[in-house]
Amino acid sequence: MAQVEEVTSVGCPSNLAPPADNAENVACPDAFVRQDGEVSRLELAIFGAKCAGCIAKIEGAVKKLPGIDEARLNLSTGKLRVSWHGKLQSQEVVNTVSGLGYRVAPYDPEASEKETDEHGRLLIRCLAVAGFAMANIMLLSIGVWSGTGGEMGEGTRALMHFVSALIAIPAAAYAGRPFFMSAWAALRAGRANMDVPISLAVVLAVSYSLFETFQAGEEVYFDAAVMLLFFLLIGRWLDHALRNRARAAARDLLALQALSANRLGPDGQLQAVSAKDIQPGDHILLAAGDRIPVNGRIISGVSEMDVSLVTGETDPVLRRTGDVVEAGVLNVSAVVTMEATATVDNSLVAELARLVEAGQQGKSSYVRLADKAARAYVPIVHTLAAITFLGWLFVFDAGLRVALMNAIAVLIITCPCALGLATPAVQIVATGELFRKGILVKAGDALERLAQVTHFVFDKTGTLTLGKPQLVNAHDLTPAQFNAAAALARASRHPLSRAIVEAAGTGIVATDVKEIPGQGVSGFVNGKLAQMGRAAFVGADDSGDDATGTLTYVALEGETPVALKFEDTLREDAAETVSTLTSSGIRTSLLSGDRPQPVKQLASRVLIEEAFAALTPAEKLEKLNAFAESGERVAMVGDGLNDAPALASAHVSLSPGSAVEAAQSAADYVFQGQGLSAVTKAWRMARRAQRHILQNFAFAALYNCVAAPLAMAGYVTPLIAALAMSGSSLIVTLNALRLKIGNGD
């Protein structure tokens, strides 16, 4: 948090939403407070919070209120979650946040998403207006420049200046809204941010140019003002677009909750109810194919269930009377009755969503290079401009016009266009190159974070492997046994049956099929009884079986049962990917919800240094936090629902395109294809991008060290300053384009 506190003094380098004129006008949030015993909980939507400094200011101010237990702001969703005990009034929380310059409302996911989308559309409109105005004013300016030396009369020049003014003034007023609103909100809150000098430069340039136009002056700088806005809006929109791709993870997780359920009344009547209406103690009837709506306990029935949400493993597990079941788990094979032990808000899926949000909040607290550079920018630029103005006005006695023009030149030439484009320009080139390689970058600072990684953590099923069981010992069966297994499998929907059918192809189907949930399937094949399933079901002895794979058994009438062995297919370049990382000094680990033996075996095959098995989603998160607390920057590679919290919490995260939507939403990168080489490709590109970003920052610093003294000395007009500023932006962009050349620098 030390880095976050340093940014606080600068304020948000993005835009703040206009604050309410009076915090008392904000609707009283008492109706939205939830009581959990003696603890009060409130969720608020915060509009305008964009950076690590915003998080530090808001959380810090709220935590100072009496009785506050927790205050956590998630930038991805705009949600502030506050819990407290005692007599604190919810309105005090609202007033505190409103007093910082942020707009507050009771949390509504749809309204929050609509607000974010509207801001993106505003940036696009502003960019279009600035681009249109810049192109037209530059055409007029070229005419004025080419007509110098007596070839253009004063009347013609004045007309072009007036036309430029008619274009520039409304265009600057509209296109500058993101900067003007941010600067005004920051000033009202007693702070200064990067948008203050930007707004000041635009207003002064337009005002001075308008004054010169009415005075029939020879030089105006409308083109400089709109050009400045155009380049800055490019960087602002790129940052907004990349930042908002990651906001859907928690929403995708919550979508896994069943919307309705069949509740058994005291009279035994079945009633369809909303999942939100289920209370602890309610009896819920679950048919095969139903998703469990809330956490509970089975009170009658036996069924196999898909628990990939909890463990990440695709093999169904047997659940009997008395067993605990979690929300989001899929009932696979038979009807059971469960007793609810929690509400929707306290279910496993809701808890996973909260873990994802907490992880995203941690990422949002990360301080990017551009934020760090912004700490010194505002006070230095303001000081230089003030020194220039006062020096030329009082020391050199050059008059108000010259002093003002030189001060404007300082503001424009030192405008953070190169600084603002240093990161986005590299990001857009690098993400474009990765996209062509089948890798989608979803977060604005993902490249920077991936370049810093010291430890890669992999999930097992679906990540290092393809997550699809395959029959590996068909040659151990006689043709009759294999045909019997295939005939039974064609009548079953079990995942292992699907693997047998894939290996066998089309063929006959067993007759008089009977399937016992959690045990196996039996039927007649060519007139003979055939059974397939657990060892006890078919009468097999499994005491000497190797437990490194998944086993089932098949038995024909009068014959000894034989084992069918299944293994998950290793991704073709998994070992090579791990080897590339370890040879570069990167530590590797395997975190899995699977059994210890297959986890240990897989880690040995791909030469991963350490492996942890039988982990729940929360335990995976604890492992990642432990790695982070030891000073490591951890990259998580995973694909399952159970990986979503870890993906959101890791320093940076990657997910294959075959992953579930919640995992893809929580990840910073999504890669396509059957291999893992995309992981090393993204890592190498991130390291190259980091070097180019640092080069851009070094150039921006050198440029300002040279340009600022020249402007202060009066050798630079605002027009030349605008051209120099644009030239610095061009150089930064060209350096970013070097990423397209070859695989190295």
Explain what this protein looks like in three dimensions.
- With 745 residues, the chain is an alpha+beta fold.
- It folds into five domains: 2-107, Alpha-Beta Plaits; 258-346, Distorted Sandwich (Calcium-transporting ATPase, cytoplasmic transduction domain A); 368-437 and 687-745, no CATH class; 438-464 and 570-686, Rossmann fold (3-Layer(aba) Sandwich), CATH 3.40.50; 467-568, Calcium-transporting ATPase, cytoplasmic domain N.
- The chain is built from 26 helices and 27 strands.
- The strands form five sheets. A seven-stranded mixed sheet has the order 15-27-26-25-16-23-24, sandwiched between helices. Strands 7-6-8-14-9-12 form a six-stranded antiparallel sheet, with no helix packed on it.
- The longest helix has 38 residues, at 109-146.
- It is elongated.
- The two termini are 34 Å apart.
- Residues 1-25 have low confidence and may be disordered.
